[in-house]
Amino acid sequence: MAKTSELNVCGWQAVSALFARHPEDVLRLFFDPATGKRAGEMCRYLATHKKVYRQVPPEELEKVAGTVHHGGIVAVIAARPLRKVTREVLSRWAQERAPLLLLDRVSNANNLGALVRTAAYFGVRAIVLPGAPGVALPSEAAYRVAEGGMEFVDFYRVPSLPDFCRELQRSHFLIGTSLRGTQLSPRAVTTKGLPRPPAIVLGNEEKGIAPGVAAACDRLVKIPGVDSVESLNVSAAAAVLCWEFFGAR
Fold this sequence. Notes:
Order of helices and strands: EHEHHEHEEHEHEHEHEHEHEH
Largest sheet: 7 strands, parallel
CATH topology of the largest domain: Alpha/beta knot
Number of strands: 11
Distance between the termini: 42 Å
CATH class of the largest domain: Alpha Beta
């Protein structure tokens, strides 16, 4: 089992992305015999840098991973600290017209992993989280579900999401999801345009966006459907909105 200051990154796709983007982060590597046949480059890198790698039986790999969902390979890394949003960061986002995702108290690790995968796919390089209890943070489950997306996204944490939203409005147009929002029309971003680059705000799985956060958004939108169910899962909603506002970039 990994120490609390470390994380197990499980699965071939996630570990491959880790080695491709941040191989220096890998502290130790474990794999079963079947997966070891294609881990040669990883092992050579670790041998060169005098780091531990080991082939182990499947039952031992399960113990190392702490889960049966290890995908045959486990890389141990140090837990990555969340970044702070400084004035320099805000200035860079404004200059780059950076696409952003703001998550208001999303609490499920699997949802966070799916959100990260979507963000990476659409070129969103920054995700902002509030400093609130119960918020899902990058975890072993999130890394696994993200399928390598974690290597392309940076996490930032802010003390108050409503306050941050109001500050971000200077450079970005904040679009929040709400069942009471205006129904999103097809290709709205291309037909209507926006006065500033968009930042998408997604809410808690059960309660949605908090009233204070909703009040700080420039526009609240509802993804149209046939109303058989009340709403989409937050990760599915993220995929729709990222395509709508970032896919046509």
